[in-house]
Amino acid sequence: MQLLALFATLMLTSSVAMLTGAIYQRWRITGLLASLTGLFGMLGLSASVITWAHWWPAIGSWFVDVPRVVPMTLLPLALAIACITGSWATLRRATP
């Protein structure tokens, strides 16, 4: 479990860095700033909606009730796969 959690965390970190580099390679600083602004905007909007709907206790109980392997390995691996797919799709159309 500990080895899988470490692998998933390292894979997520590497794939986020790879996606950031792919965005920079394709759209330069404008794309990087636009994607980060969109990311922080979506995170803020989702936090506002979760707070407005009073879903924080449900989210907390989900993290308590779910087996440890899900938040420690499966969620980071799923996010890493999404970032790698986004990197591939972004770099596929980038010009050198």
- What class would the helix/strand composition place it in? mainly alpha
The number of helical runs is 3
DSSP summary, beta strand count: 0
Mean pLDDT: 96
Measured between the Cα atoms of the first and last residue, the distance is: 41 Å
| Approximate helicity band | over 70%
Sketch the topology as an H/E string, one letter per element: HHH
Q: Largest sheet, described in full?
A: none
Quaternary structure state of the chains depicted: single chain
Strand share of the residues? Answer: under 5%
Q: Quick one: overall form?
A: flat
Task: Kindly provide the radius of gyration, computed on alpha-carbon positions and rounded to a whole number of angstroms.
Answer: 16 Å
Uncertain stretches: none
Write structural notes for this entry.
The chain has 96 residues and is mainly α. The chain is 89% helix and 0% strand. It contains 3 helices and no strands. The protein is flat and about 50 Å long. The model has no long low-confidence stretch (mean pLDDT 96).
Quick structural summary:
This protein is mostly helical. The chain is 89% helix and 0% strand. It is flat and about 50 Å long.
Which descriptors apply to this entry?
96 residues, mainly alpha, flat
SSE inventory with pairings:
Blueprint: H1 2-52, H2 56-65, H3 69-92
